[in-house]
Recover the amino acids of this structure.
């Protein structure tokens, strides 16, 4: 595992921490693979009863690393093997409770991954955004299905089509977040809730989670379809202009696309 993801085990709780704060915890292909491997191993390991995903007190994650989008874009013909899909599949299918602690920006997949977590504790400094359209790509991580289910079509459309930031209290109201706390309390609270879960009968937790996830039968297909469109759009001129503009800290010009 690279230093950009820290893994910590205490009792039955495995904690995975984004540790690339200088790049706002933007996620690289190596980090996706580290996360996917850790979650797949934890799913099989009886001594892990709960997993926690967290960032730093000032930032959760700026989403996919934008330089990686240009250097190592996921291959549209082999999306199932793409590191990002391996990670998304690992969280979608994770059979044990998954708790997230989110403070600061949670952008793109930094926000959509939360739709797959069971409990999401957010700092009152949390700022969520789903800027896929603004980047010339499209919704991913199952968000085109899960966000309308969770928050209603109109609210999901506002977040996914405009891509503007929204904050902890609205995310709580939308059902994306379980509870809002002062940022410095989030990690300890998430850990305490995870420890409580780890002391409960593991099969009862697993069965209850599996039953609650049953109303999402089409999710895997939607996630693959999203990423196929995403890869196609990522290779198109609008995404190239958008990503270049973010990296050059200027406004993109979509007048030709
Ligand atoms: N990929 C790669 N690098 C990123 C990044 C990303 N997604 N997000 C931030 N960084 C890097 C910046 O390039 C900068 O690097 P530098 O110090 O070498 O110049 C560093 O992280 C700090 O970023 P900065 O933008 O100065 O921080 P900020 O506090 O002003 O803003 C964010 C934080 C997260 C709001 C802002 O960085 C942002 O919007 N990032 C892009 C998010 C995005 O579009 N993600 C893709 C979603 S699909």
């Amino acid at each position: 595992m690279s230093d950009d993801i820290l893994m910590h085990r205490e009792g039955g709780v495995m904690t995975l921490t984004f540790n690339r704060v200088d790049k706002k915890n933007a996620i690289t292909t190596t980090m996706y693979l580290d996360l996917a491997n850790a979650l797949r191993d934890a799913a099989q390991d009886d001594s892990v009863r709960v997993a926690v995903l967290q960032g730093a007190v000032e930032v959760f994650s700026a989403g996919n690393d934008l330089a990686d989008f240009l250097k190592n874009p996921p291959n549209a013909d082999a999306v199932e093997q793409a590191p990002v899909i391996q990670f998304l599949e690992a969280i979608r299918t994770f059979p044990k409770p998954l708790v997230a602690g989110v403070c600061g920006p949670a952008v793109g997949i930094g926000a959509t991954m939360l739709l797959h977590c069971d409990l999401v504790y957010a700092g009152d400094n949390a700022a969520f955004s789903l800027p896929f359209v603004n980047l010339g790509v499209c919704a991913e991580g199952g968000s085109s299905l899960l966000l309308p289910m969770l928050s209603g079509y109109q609210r999901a459309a506002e977040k996914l089509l405009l891509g503007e930031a929204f904050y902890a209290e609205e995310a709580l109201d939308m059902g994306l977040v379980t509870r809002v706390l002062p940022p410095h309390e989030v990690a300890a609270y998430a850990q305490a809730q995870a420890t409580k879960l780890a002391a409960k009968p593991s099969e009862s937790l697993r069965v209850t989670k599996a039953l609650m996830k049953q109303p999402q039968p089409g999710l895997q297909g939607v996630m693959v379809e999203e990423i196929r469109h995403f890869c196609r759009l990522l290779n198109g001129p609008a995404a190239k202009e958008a990503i270049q503009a973010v990296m050059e800290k200027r406004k993109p010009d979509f007048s030709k696309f």
Summary: The longest helix spans residues 29-44.
